[in-house]
Design brief:
With 195 residues, the chain is of the alpha+beta class. 48% of the residues lie in helices and 18% in strands.
Amino acid sequence: MARLSEFLEQDITAATISRMEQKGIVMQLSRGLYQLPDAQLDADHSLAVAAKLVPNGVICLDSALAFHGLTDRIPASVWVGIGARDWRPKIVRPRIQTVRFGPKVFDRGVQTHVIERVPVRIYSPAKTIVDLFRHGQRQKVWYDSQSGLTDAVQGMKEALRLRKATPAEIAQFAMEAGVWDKVVQPRLEVLTVDA
């Protein structure tokens, strides 16, 4: 998988790429992103595509939860976190939902995983759970919806059961994000009361 800019750095012109595409040597995945037609696709292929298209972004929320195996739902879109002042991409394929993160929390809890030989930045399980609580809290306030908080609690329960996150990690990220006292702490205490 390579971006047009990466081809240009190797002195391969856009006209050459266009001819390669017409001959079936490469196929276009999205605007400015190409791949070999017989390339092996990983189950997380869309995350690798999103990482190429939004190089400063971090896979977050439902997409990170699914990547870490903490939910059985398949997200309809790839959720990508971007900085508060970053450019919001307009991408048609794959469907990408962007979420803005403030400078205090954007770079915290980032792990790099290699998918189809592409380095993909993904938030850790503990950070993902806290972000789901923050996002769920906003949904509750704006739309009077409990579904976001329910997903966050289920993700936290699964992360603790599979030992992919510790209560201390979750608490640390929640304190940094300002959702510890009223949102995360009571739910975490309920899940760890017998542990």
